[in-house]
Design brief:
The chain is of the alpha+beta class. 27% of the residues lie in helices and 27% in strands.
């Protein structure tokens, strides 16, 4: 394992935090991450609404492993490693569908959707100790859910998921509260794209409101020209687009917690939605107040947040609700997948506003994502000089008393402190 210079310099006395840039370029560090982070932490697999009926399945890569996310014949949600027990071929080659069995195209072994071995062509050629019961599809060591979000862990000794999530559950609950029936669903359609940058840069970018005035100036101008009033408190000569906070939730999880200005399909009207949307949004808000009380309804409708579940799940609860994951395809490349999430019972018009907001801001062709991808790739290109310029400065906000703003770097330091702990405590 890597054992060179420190990954971080965390000097609270001097109010200085520095990050060793090698963490974004080293293949060896990536291999260490696979063992010390992705093999030990809870990793997001999918949402239960993606597999609604018995037999529904989705195949995807999770923590670098091909898996089958499936609702079996009894209706139970399961996760199997997508690897034949015979010679190791991928069993299910379809991205999604509905099936009672999965057939390996190599030698015809078949598996029921609960993972048990169903059939072996020519099984009479095997000896008496050939155990079909023991040859079902392997499963991750742990597989648990919180409010419809399913995670796996490869470490059987990991703490329960709800304990791992800790205070992050408070912010997941704010998402679920948007539905009158407490049932959110992933909306049909998936965004996938590659970024030529280290995966951890996406963690930083997903919650970094410091970059909004410069990186996303086109979007801010679009909002202003569309009649959206953007509060812009001035700080240190910069015009910042919102007043909000950065909050450490424990276990490496963190969030921004912002006053909303950009509108929300759940009961926060802005001119972009059109005059005809006002009445429906008023109805949505009245339902929130009746069901949750005025204070909780205000919390749900009038604030927004970008939540990071360590290490690589982001739930953007802003102008729409977005689930985003990203996995390294090498030290300097990642694959990003994102989905829109909405209340199951929302109307066709409310769903249209949600998807428009999702695509306009978060989509690969929207206002934000192309800007962010370019910024991250520029960072990765600049890091080619890491040997001669080895440290990134990440001290913004350390000298402040009280709550850290979303434009400070407190939440980024939260991630890096936990990352550093996991990457160094097991080295002995």
């Amino acid at each position: 394992m890597t054992d060179k210079r420190p990954y971080i310099v965390d000097d609270n006395d001097r109010k200085v935090f520095m990050l060793n840039r090698e963490v974004h370029v080293s293949e060896q560090i990536l291999q260490d991450e696979m063992q010390l982070i992705f093999a030990k932490c809870w990793i997001y697999v999918g949402h239960e609404s993606e597999i609604k009926k018995p037999g529904d399945f989705i195949t995807r890569r999770v923590a670098g492993r091909p898996v089958i996310f499936v609702r079996d014949a009894s209706g139970a949600v399961q996760c199997h490693f997508n690897t034949c027990r015979h010679r190791g071929a991928t069993v299910c080659t379809q991205p999604k569908g509905n099936a009672r069995r999965f057939f390996c195209v190599y030698h015809g072994w078949s598996y029921k959707n609960d993972g048990t071995l169903g059939g072996v062509p020519g099984d009479d050629a095997y000896g008496e100790h050939f155990d079909k019961v023991a040859l079902g599809l392997k499963k991750p060591a742990r597989f648990e859910s919180y409010r419809g979000f399913w995670f796996l862990c490869l470490d059987k000794d990991v703490e329960p998921l709800v304990n791992y999530l800790g205070r992050a559950t408070e912010y997941i609950d704010l998402v679920i509260d948007q539905s009158p029936s407490n049932t959110m669903e992933v909306i049909e359609g998936t965004q996938e794209y590659d970024v030529q940058a280290n995966w951890k840069l996406m963690v930083e970018n997903s919650v970094d409101d410091y970059h909004l005035p410069t990186t996303h100036s086109t979007w801010l101008n679009f909002m202003k020209n569309s009649g959206v009033v953007v509060e812009q408190p001035k700080e240190a000569g910069l015009v910042l687009p919102t007043k909000g906070y950065a909050i450490d939730l424990g276990n490496g999880h963190f969030t921004t917690d912002n006053e909303n200005f950009r509108g929300r399909p759940v009961a926060k009207w802005i001119p972009l939605f059109g005059e005809e949307a006002k009445a429906e949004i008023d109805v949505i808000r009245a339902e929130l107040v009746e069901r949750l009380g005025a204070e909780r309804a205000t919390r749900v409708a009038d604030t927004n947040r970008n939540l990071v579940i360590f290490p690589n799940l982001v739930i953007n609860d802003g102008s729409s609700v977005t689930i985003r994951t990203f996995y390294p395809e090498g030290a300097e490349r990642m694959h990003v997948t994102a989905w829109a999430l909405g209340p199951t019972e929302e109307s066709e018009s409310a769903r249209a506003r949600r998807l428009d907001a999702f695509l306009t801001f978060y989509g690969p062709g929207g206002f934000a994502t192309p800007d962010d991808v370019e910024a991250l790739e520029l960072v990765q290109q600049g890091l080619a000089n890491w040997r001669d310029d080895p440290w990134s400065e990440m001290s913004r906000g350390m000298a402040k008393d009280g709550m850290q703003l979303n434009s400070d770097e407190h939440h980024l330091r939260t991630f890096w402190r936990h990352w550093n702990k996991l990457m160094t405590e097991d080295k002995a």
